[in-house]
Amino acid sequence: MSRRIPSLKALSCFEQTARFGSASRAADELYLTQSAVSRQIQGLENWLGCKLFNREKQRLVLTPEGESYLQSIRPALDQLESATLTMLSGGSESGVLTVAAPPTFGSRCLIPLLPQFRSKHPEIAINFISRIGMPDFDREQIDIAVLFGQGTWSDLDAHILHGEEMVPICGPQLIANLDRAPVADDLRHFPLLHIATRPRGWADWLAASGLHDIDGDNGPKFEHFTMAMQAAAAGLGVALLPTFAIEDELKSGRIVAPFGPPKASPFHYYACCPTSRARLPKIRAFMSWLDQLETAAQLTAKIMREDR
Description:
Blueprint: H1 8-20, H2 23-30, H3 34-48, E1 53-56, E2 59-62, H4 64-88, E3 95-101, H5 103-110, H6 114-120, E4 124-130, E5 144-149, E6 156-162, E7 165-169, E8 192-195, H7 201-208, E9 221-222, H8 225-233, E10 238-242, H9 247-252, E11 263-264, E12 268-274, H10 281-291, H11 296-307
Parallel strand pairs: 3-4, 3-5, 8-9, 8-10
Antiparallel strand pairs: 1-2, 5-12, 6-12, 7-10, 7-11
């Protein structure tokens, strides 16, 4: 007896329209015309005998029936995608794994450990790309992305990787004229250099240090850790940077950290993949390997030992 199941095309149009709140956006995602997506959704509504979307202003919003149906079919669609990707990879852990990570974290913390993964899984080739923030996993064909935050992203499996301790640093010349050892309160006398991805970095660090009367919101802004470090080393001011990003520069004396000890950030780095793909063998192999690594403190110590 044949199954009473709508076409996969109709279900894909329904899922993507629900995701974007727009038939036009869904059409772009599925490489269809907007009218084709609308016809598929109308046909699905007729087949089910209920309305799946309401139009509110310029968005298509799920009806209660549509929301219930989406939650019911999404696990089945995820499982179908996972099974298909597994078959396409030959049903084994072989294949190409594309990992995206912020440039400094990737180069200093993750890439040094990849030879260990390759020794355990030589059948998996790794492509490593630089990316800050949430990628489009589908369009960019990314398998795993390293994200910074609290690990609560919807529709993503998140594996904790590394904490972050922030410390103020500067070039030695910036404090050369002080007639005593610098203290945290001296930060009020220097420009504070900010990082675009850590807009609350200085404000949070100063508050944690009890320095509530220093302006931690204003100052020159830089896009990357490396740019802020270079600016600080050149004497432009004091940058607040994660310890893992500046270990070599501190050892060489190019920069100094005289204003107090590092303070832990409430956020962490996570290795993330779409939940629907978490069972794909090559992703499962990489995530399992990450889970076997030491805690954040042990991981940092290991990298430092290997860099010596």
